[in-house]
Fold this sequence. Notes:
Elements: H1 2-24, E1 42-51, H2 54-60, E2 73-83, H3 86-103, E3 112-119, E4 126-135, E5 140-150, E6 153-161, H4 169-179, E7 184-189, E8 197-199, E9 216-224
Antiparallel strand pairs: 1-2, 1-9, 2-6, 3-4, 4-5, 5-6, 7-8
Amino acid sequence: MKPLRRFLGFLFAAVLALPILAASAQTPSAGAIPNINELEGIEAAVSRTWGLDVEAMIAATTNIEPDEFGQGVTALSAMVLRFDTAEHARAAYDAFLDGVDVSLPDLAQGGTPTVTDEPLNDLGDTATAVTLNTRTEERETFYRLVLVQEGEYFFLTSALAGTSDDVAIAGELARYVVTEGEEQGDEAIFVAEGGSRGGLWGFMPANDNDVLGDLIPIYDETLYPAP
């Protein structure tokens, strides 16, 4: 079952990371999500992705149907960037927000996309939730991103789910990393499978935290400086 879990996990992660990867792989056009390496004042950046525990699902239900993998929350991610000044963190927040609004409809992949922005006045110094609702003849999906700037940090969380209620977990995760997470020292231990700790990884919730529900860590990535 490990190859299946790995395949599905990286598929979910690829969906969540697509806007950032697309912007980094080419010369950004006007309004595109910026390349992290080119953000002014960037000092460090990491991300973690959580996904379904496919092995546990298959073990619990021997005749599980493929559609069951798409029920509830499919994937969740958190990105933490630290800058040398709060002004540079705010500039990154603004640039990402502009890029997200432009790039999200491209993820609809043939469906009918609707993008909505919602200011969040009770989180960080400034925060916005952006939701992509995609409708096809077969199904409806929701992809929600929450962007927060607080001091010299910029946070971005995202969730992929089948309903607007389920996708709200992106906001719950954002609230956790901003209000309860904290940087843990200068040294970090990197574990690609989702077990990194120390440094910016201190913002990530523990695996048994209620905010994650039944999701498990899929993989970690050091975004800056490049390993």
